[in-house]
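Teaching assistant's notes for section 4

Start the section by putting this record on the projector. Ask students to predict, before seeing the second block, whether DNA-binding domain-containing protein will look compact or extended. Collect guesses on the board.
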Amino acid sequence: MSDQLPTVTDYQASLLTSIMTFSPSAPGSGLQVYQHNLQMTAVRSLSIAFPVLAAMLGEEAVYVLARRLFTSEKPCSGDWADWGRTLPALLRSSELHEEYPYLADIAAFEWAFHRAARSRYVALQADTLNSLTQCEPDTIRIRLQPSLTLVSSAFPLFGLWQLHRSQPPGRAPGLAELEAVMQTEESGCYVISQSTATTQVMVINAQEYQWLEGVKQGMTLGTLLDVYPTLDFAQWLTTALTNEWVTGLS
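Reveal the predicted structure now:
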């Protein structure tokens, strides 16, 4: 019995595989055109999701990273903005990490900002705050914005992020500017979330960071107060409500 002829679907799947793996193709071929377009789309996508990282590295380095990332992380949807989640891990395992260890953390910071900016804002259910006076702390849990992400680093990520975002197009910060930021004393603890007006970044202290980690893990208010007895809950709640981190209590 003769081998079954490939179907149109088989051919399309093979073509897509060839394109998405950047396999070599003859110069000037139709496949090479598709590959080039895909590569440029990947580079643009990373530059949009990670603008500060792209400014730090330059176009050639972003091109190389895009090719490497594509081998381990394929687009999971029809939207390229969903692609890039594993770039921080890729940077940590790259030859850049030893000399520039802060790049992976910058990538994680920018990915959190990028995802928060694309997330839905959830309004506060103010009536649920009544449980603070009506229920025992051990029965209360704090609900946070779905977009809220915690990032920590040994480097002043917020300062580096702000410095690069403040530069005119095509201009990189000077060495003196970079050194000044690297010498600043940031806590290295950040909250990134979506609010009604914008995507915001807040620098917090280590105890506030640990408290928020506990909230995200589902700890009750009673447990949090026991674990972090020196944290001023009333003050924290005021800050959290002002920054629209909290969506309610349950």
